[in-house]
Design brief:
It is built from two helices and no strands. It is an all-alpha fold and 110 residues long.
Length: 110
């Protein structure tokens, strides 16, 4: 069977997973941003040519794109918040470990 992982290893794995997720969200966001620019260009072109029905369709698409970007921003903010909590837990783990070492050293002196 596998060895049980230390708290520090578990924290590091979770930090890495969150960092990866944030990068993936950023990548998706960039793709959606490119799509948004394309749609805006199509709206302008269709409006210039007087094609109102196309403009409506593209406008609805643009609204969906903006909502998707908003959801990505919220997800990224939540992941960042969790990342900060993990950093705090990691710091607390380091303090606890240092205190254990200090107590052990103190006991060996007595």
């Amino acid at each position: 069977a596998g060895q049980s992982k230390t708290t520090a290893e578990i924290l590091q794995e979770n930090k890495n997973a969150i960092r990866t997720s944030i990068r993936e969200i950023d990548r998706e966001e960039r793709q959606i941003e490119r799509r948004r620019k394309e749609v805006e260009t199509k709206i302008k072109k269709s409006a210039k040519e007087g094609r109102v029905s196309e403009v409506r369709i593209f406008a609805k698409d643009l609204v969906r794109i903006k909502k998707a970007v908003e959801k990505f921003e919220i997800a990224k903010a939540n992941l960042s918040q969790i990342q900060i909590q993990l950093m705090t837990a990691s710091g607390q783990e380091a303090i606890a470990s240092a205190l254990k070492g200090a107590v052990g050293a103190y006991r060996s002196l007595n």
